[in-house]
Input
Amino acid sequence: MSLHWHILGAGNLGTLAAFYLRQAGFSMCLAGRPEAPRRLTFPDGRSHDLLLPGDDGAPIRYLILATKAAQSLPALAPLRPRLGTGTTLVRLQNGLGSLDHLPPPHPHIIDAVANSGAWREPLPGGGEHIHLAAENTTLLGDGHSQPPSWFGTLADHWPQLSWRPDIRLQQWLKLSLNAVINPLTALYDCDNGALLADSRLQPRFGALAEEIDALARHLLPEWPGETAARARALAQATAGNTSSMRADVRAGRATEIHYINGYLLRQAEQIGMALPEHQRIVAEILALHRP
Ligand SMILES: NC(=O)c1ccc[n+]([C@@H]2O[C@H](COP(=O)([O-])OP(=O)(O)OC[C@H]3O[C@@H](n4cnc5c(N)ncnc54)[C@H](OP(=O)(O)O)[C@@H]3O)[C@@H](O)[C@H]2O)c1
Output
């Protein structure tokens, strides 16, 4: 199967996607950017040097969107004349709501939940060096039970890539954990495990989790609850890790709070529900940086 993909956002996850698209035999190039060198190092030490071709200016049929959530609409704006209703857009991002205000034409959107961990640094001589610290599951879905025809070929080459008919639930499960762990670790500048060790943080941890369960029960009939227990288990399993939001705050970058806790607030507002603990923590995180 010969498909041509464009990658918008060749940072950590975009480079990983570019690597696996090539492994699967698909052609690809960047969108909106010139040719770019990348080195991708896997957790076992294997390294690959890639030269990602620059934008070919052609109509975009298959697109991976892997910018940070807040960069999505500005990055997509100049590409609009090349997008159409026949475009498939795979949104390889954390958080929810980054395409809620995408003007027409509306592509077919496939959502993702990415559980790998990667960071990057400049490559001597130009380009970026992507370090994949942990390679975990990547879930894709668009609400349909069956994946598109190209998916099997990609999944044959992308370890732990799976199609999920229940992608919305999977996104909310991930969002719920991010919405507890990320802002608390960013605010208190601590590793994930410190959330469990510091008893002063427990009331906030519990309150954030309870508010998520109350909202999610309204919106998702299949919501399993138990957000506090799941967040505790994740904080334990990743005790030494720095959350992406803490890393963003430390580096002086804008965080994705608007698409994590902020998304929960917008959903709650639509059904007239208050989430005071989330409201408070969004304000506190925004006070740390200017989005
Ligand atoms: N990193 C992880 O471990 C990880 C894990 C799971 C989920 N995620 C999620 O995946 C998403 C992407 O994260 P990431 O870590 O891959 O981000 P990232 O490394 O910052 O990559 C974003 C890329 O988008 C590029 N970009 C920004 N604006 C652009 C534009 N207008 N046109 C073209 N390219 C543009 C950036 O280029 P410049 O650098 O030149 O600005 C950068 O290369 C986020 O939602 C994140 O939360 C990340």
